[in-house]
Amino acid sequence: MKSKISCCNAGLLRRSILRGAPLWGLWTLGWLILLPLHLLSNPSPDFIYAKEYTLGLTQVGTVLVFGYGLLVAWYQFAYLYNTRAAYHYGSLPLRRETQFLTRYLSGLLFHLVPAAVTALLTVLVAALQGTSCIRVAGTFFAATSLVYLFYYSLAVLIAQLVGHIIALPALYLVLNFTSLVLETILSEVLRTFTFGMVSGQDLWPDWLSPAYYALRRNLFGFTTNWDPNTGDFLSIRFNGWVPALIFGAVGLGFAVLAFLFFRKRHLESAGDVIAVPFLRPVFLYALALGCGIVLGRVLSAALFTDDQTRFVPLLFSMLVCTALGYWAGQMLLHKSLRVLSKGNWVRCGAVMAVMAAGMLCCRYDVTGFSRYVPAADDVKSVTLSYDIGQITDRDIINRTVALHQEIVDQRYAIEEQLREASSFTYFSVTYEMQDGSTASRRFRLPVDRYGNYDRSSLAWAASELQCDQKVLLERYFPAGGKPAYDQFTVEYLDTEWVYQQMELTYDQAEALAEAIQADIEAGTLGGDDISWPYERNQYDLQVQMAYYVSGQRLSYDSIFVTAAAEHTCAVLRELGVPEAVIAGESAD
């Protein structure tokens, strides 16, 4: 008769919980201090405070479980990395399934019980103060538990893949943040010799770095709704249920994978960096290429002139660091310095060749990325250098496409001039195509700021395009946007070099906005310092503006005032701005 498989061993569960008391005890104490004890010691007559505070700590909890899940998994499966301990537990009359499920369940209880106790005490304290917090306390328990399930299960899965106690936290951090770090560095590297590439361009989805993705998108935030007419409280809503459920479901998938790897794990792999044989080549080449990209960029910046036009020094640095990463990986995998075999030299050369081929393809535009210029008829709108407003005027679109084509045609001449120029300016463009797709490019154009500007230069042409009245009006008065007049301010340095700021009323802001628009249409306000014929006011006088689109604040912008802007200067005089400031006179 076949014996029944037990899913949990009481003795092992009790031992795991008791020995882990310092860990879950501190976790429990921390939450008791942050939630129920805080509410008890800070009673508030405002019943909304307790709800907002609890949901705020729910968001904090979804961040803290990132580290706590790692610590719990580290504690539960640290025995796998010690040969004696691994053989000891392997010799017990317990099936592997029982050992894994017992330890995994124990790790879940390390958070579920403290979270449940904290939620119940929060409800009790709120009830004593005359407030009902059952819903928000339940949200705290459920949301933090689901996110904890994700991070804890991920750490448990990694624990089965590695064989060294330091490898677990290292690989856990790598998997959570390498996507972000690698994209940042790789984007910077590619921008160095991929002409026109935009800084910060997404190369892959942000959710590959889940902790960063959750913080950046504010996945677990909340919204408080108020009556727009009376200002009375209406409701409070947690916004993170769907992400929390997705995190929990993915966490269960990680747990199943961890269970399958644990059943096949070799006890003798204790002490190895990677415990799963088929993952060792993946680790080796990922480490080599990662070191080549990240450390290569750092080495190039440290040893050579950090110039985007210097391709050879960067490529050399990346190849050196790729080789260093490969040999470091071999030494870690073999736990020996004796790795200089003929086969390893061949494989090292191969991975360096892959790195060089990839960089050369980018440099010489094999994909056609740098040469791409859209047809003007395919473009629906353009955004020039600023994130405010999309310009649909066909004349501006045609001029933008023509300038883009001219820049692409003169690529190598521009790169050569950048080495000698005293300065440079950026020209950025984002196209929205008729099919809804977008394309963004950003170019550095050489500028000689110590002499007369060359009217035939690309920088001058870009400046004239960006100073066009249609572009300036779209920038400062976005189509479909409503200026937030209550956010208009005038800022200046007076004749004593004291900073002054004036907040305008609605009527004052409306009059100033009309004057600014009139001066832009007259061509006396809003240009830059390359092709603009009027000198600025020594940057001593500016107007700050905010815009709303569809009821939402779009962004802020500012405009520096020149003495040639007659309408704007007239309004500023009426507002009380000193004549000396308007005229551009400075204190000695």
UniProtKB/TrEMBL annotation:
Keywords, sorted A to Z: Membrane, Transmembrane, Transmembrane helix
Domain of life: Bacteria
Annotated TM spans: 21-40, 60-81, 101-128, 134-154, 161-182, 241-262, 282-305, 311-333, 345-366
Keyword Phosphoprotein belongs to the record: no
Signal peptide: none
Name of the featured protein: Uncharacterized protein
Organism of derivation: Candidatus Avoscillospira avicola
